[in-house]
Design goal:
Layout lengths: L1 E6 L8 H14 L1 E6 L6 H10 L4 E6 L1 H11 L5 E6 L5 H5 L6 H14 L2 E9 L2 E3 L2 E4 L1 H10 L2 H7 L1 H15 L7 E5 L4 E5 L1 E5 L5 E3 L2 E3 L11 E6 L4 H13 L18 E7 L1 E14 L2 E21 L2 H5 L1 H5 L8
Parallel strand pairs: 1-2, 1-3, 3-4
Antiparallel strand pairs: 5-6, 5-16, 7-10, 7-15, 8-9, 8-15, 10-13, 11-12, 13-14, 15-16
Helix pairs in contact: 1-5, 2-3, 6-8
Length: about 325
């Protein structure tokens, strides 16, 4: 197969040794070319060029932001995306079942390529930007913006930087005094008192170290979108919801344990094909952990079959468990 390896050398887990080992492993059985990102957004044109040249797959060694950029360059093309965890959190790679070590994950990727484990998956889209696992509006986007200011610390201290940024943003940097936006689904459901919202394409929302944080356990590669809107940012409420999200998930029975027990403070819309968020003031937003600035209107949509994705063999063999269920309605 003809592959392009895109490397973000600035990503937290990318080392010179890992890069050499990974390049040799991929080149052993495939025709490999390598490109290194030099600026934010660079992975998108690199991936577009690979698709235009008819390459079979683009493999990304980097964090979630670099993977998102490549996905935006490949969406709607026959060129597949392969991911190797190179960042501090690696939400998407871990979500699809990849080992969190980039060298070990390379073996999983090679096995998947050899077996032809490539499938079309849905993507989310907000204001023309695709996302793989979530888009955030309001508080969490403000936190991501603060984390991006601390990129050096993020490389060395990982999740601790997110926790510190969340605490400082909650205390000093985000207006919690009044509702910030309304969410309106295409079916007509309205939530008009949102403080912050997350639109999820997959689950978990993120990882705190080794612990997954579940906001929408039913979300998966083949489900529609889930929009979780927080109506309160009071500290006791957030701590209760955090505890519930850490406990939530899918136990051995296969029945989901839902984190959102406090319905007065959280609204959950499932099975969302399209929705819009109308902000009462400029609202920060992020996609897949990449801060995009502020806007006052956001158009959300689920885009079926938008991306061809290389998936680990365990996921390919157990598709229904990892894909979730399509078409659930609001609750």
């Amino acid at each position: 197969m003809r592959l392009l390896l895109i490397v973000n050398s600035s990503a937290s887990s990318v080392t010179a040794r890992a890069r050499v080992v990974i390049q040799k492993a991929l080149a052993a059985d495939h025709e490999l070319s390598v490109a290194e990102t030099s600026r934010r957004g660079h992975a998108t044109p690199l991936a577009q060029g690979a698709a235009a040249d008819g390459l079979d797959a683009v493999v990304v060694l980097g964090g979630d932001g670099t993977i998102n950029e490549a996905a935006n360059g490949l969406a709607g093309t026959p060129t597949a995306l392969g991911v190797l965890p190179g960042g501090s959190t690696n939400v998407f790679a871990r979500t699809i079942g990849m080992t969190n070590d980039p060298i070990e994950a390379t073996g999983e990727l090679l096995a998947a390529l050899a077996a032809g484990a490539v499938r079309s998956v849905d993507l989310g889209r907000v204001n023309g930007r695709y996302f793989l696992f979530h888009a955030g509006f309001g508080f969490d986007a403000a936190v991501v913006g603060e984390v991006e200011k601390r990129s050096v610390a993020k490389r060395w201290f990982g999740a601790a930087v997110f926790v510190t940024a969340a605490m400082s943003t909650w205390a000093r940097g985000y207006d919690r005094s009044s509702p910030a936006f309304a969410v309106r689904s295409a079916e007509g459901t309205v939530v008009d008192d949102g403080r912050f919202a997350v639109c999820l394409k997959t689950d978990p929302y993120t990882f705190l170290g080794s612990r997954p944080l579940h906001l929408a356990p039913e979300a998966g590669l083949d489900t529609l979108l889930t929009v979780v809107t927080f109506r309160s940012l009071r500290l006791p409420t957030l701590l209760l919801l955090l505890a519930g999200a850490l406990r939530a998930g899918k136990p051995a029975t296969g029945r989901s344990v839902r984190p959102m027990a406090h319905r007065r403070t959280v609204a959950v819309l499932e099975g969302v094909e399209a929705a819009e968020i109308l902000a009462y003031r400029p609202l920060p937003y992020q996609v897949d952990g990449d801060y995009l600035g502020e806007a006052e209107r956001f158009e959300l949509r689920s885009v079926p079959g938008a991306l061809r994705l290389v998936v680990p063999l365990s996921v390919s063999a157990d598709r229904d468990v990892h894909a979730g269920r399509r078409g659930r309605g609001p609750r």
